[in-house]
Amino acid sequence: MIYHLLYPLHHFWSLFNVFKYISFRTIYASLTAVVLAFYLGPKIISWLRKLHIGQVVRDDGPESHLKKAGTPTMGGVLILFSAVVSTLLWGNLTNIYLWLVVLVALAFGAVGFVDDYRKMVHRNSKGLSARKKFGLQILIAGLFSTCLYLLPSYPSTLMMPFLKRVVPDLGCWYIPFAVLVVVGASNAVNLTDGLDGLATGPSIIAFSVYLIFAYLAGHRLLSGYLQIVYLPGVGELAIFCGAMVGSLLGFLWFNTYPADIFMGDVGSLSLGSCLGAVAVMTKQEIVLMLVGGIFVLETLSVIIQVASFKLIGKRVFRMAPLHHHFELKGWAEPKVIVRFWIISIMLSLLALSTLKLR
Questions:
Q1: I need a surface site. Which of 13, 71, 283, 316 has the fewest CB within 10 A?
Q2: In the chain, where does DSSP find H-type helix?
Q3: Would you say 39 and 227 are in contact if contact means Cβ atoms under 8 Å apart?
Q4: Mean pLDDT, range 199-221, rounded to an integer
Q5: pTM for the model
């Protein structure tokens, strides 16, 4: 909105030409989101407490988590509101990629909201049934992937990390592949959201990396130099990623240990889905396994635990997801969180190196 209002004035005053640059608008989208989150955070926390919308803790989780019962949840509303408003203020609203990722975030956020609401109403940690939740996620991701595939300028090829000449074209099979990426990322972040700030930190790091990927993919000269797919218009996704980084930083102020608010499924499902959507739209789908390595490890720990128990009747980990395993080994919660953040930073640096090591 600000872009459309102020950039046309560059015909009269050259100062307004600065609004043309994605880098400038990304910075201010991030700052706007931070300010919104800082301002609205205490108000939303107070409002949620008055409504008695508190966290329902798993009865089979670590005993130390029982004291978290009643902490305001559904803080993902704060993240989404700050990020979406900032994106609409600073983004080019004629850009299809921007609208696709915003709609994906809102749609998955709506699924998470219903899930959180059912938990509050029924006072248990189950929420929506897995069948309904996955069904809605697949439907939304399917619509997104189909719209993307039908865009005339969008290729159905895959970029392989570290491999310059291996560029397979999936054709129409790209649609189910993109669905897998979006739904998988959404649920991976959801599984990771089990400690104060644990999912927030790696999400900030991941969106920061994809901010760079989006900017490069939308820049004709830089994409050519790095030999990555040039996608006209996809650079606007950097503004969305910047807004997400800003809103998550603001949310982390209240979500850091000991948390005053949790993001809930409305936050974790939407964060993961739009991270997956951005990965697909920037043609950096495979690299997401590195950027979101912590989310992948958490998901694998659950899969391994369930498979091991069903096949041989034994558990590999003391508890899954993985962060609970380390808690039960005696690691303090802040130690688990910060060490997972460190691993996330290292994996993200490795992911960025794929731009040159190919």
A1: 13
A2: 2-6, 22-50, 76-90, 96-122, 130-150, 174-192, 200-217, 220-226, 237-255, 264-281, 288-291, 293-312, 322-328, 333-353
A3: no
A4: 96
A5: 0.93
